[in-house]
Amino acid sequence: MSIISPVRTDSDDEALVALAELIDVLDANLRRSEQILERARYLRTLREAGLGWGKVVEGEKRPLIVELLTSSIEELHEASARFRRANAKALRGEGMSIEQIASFFGVSRQRVSALLSSPEPPRRSFGSYKRTTE
Predict the structure, then answer these.
(1) CA–CA separation, 77 and 15 (whole Å)
(2) Which regions in the chain score pLDDT beneath 70?
(3) Model-level pTM?
(4) Helices 65-93 and 14-48 sit at what angle, rounded to 10 degrees?
């Protein structure tokens, strides 16, 4: 039986902050997924009724399903990257070796080293579906 050392839970706990953000993104993605699913089923009904894809997509309200999917992917990618980085730093700060973290995360030691040494990346656009005009 191992003894668990006390951990910080104050606002300086970067991993806890990143986890809270990840939870918010996951909650938003759940709501967005319901919307995507409902609309996808409707589009399938239209397509199965014989409408061409041009008419199906032309009648789709904004944001399009592909835009909603891109938002979900982008937000989850960014939040998970921040949590992964902050969690690796927290584990290292509590004395876990790079090898142990790599094993725990299922990645190489080099990947963990990169996580530990890299600064927070700027938020960026993900994928090719970002609208270029509003």
Answers:
(1) 16
(2) 1-11, 121-134
(3) 0.75
(4) 160
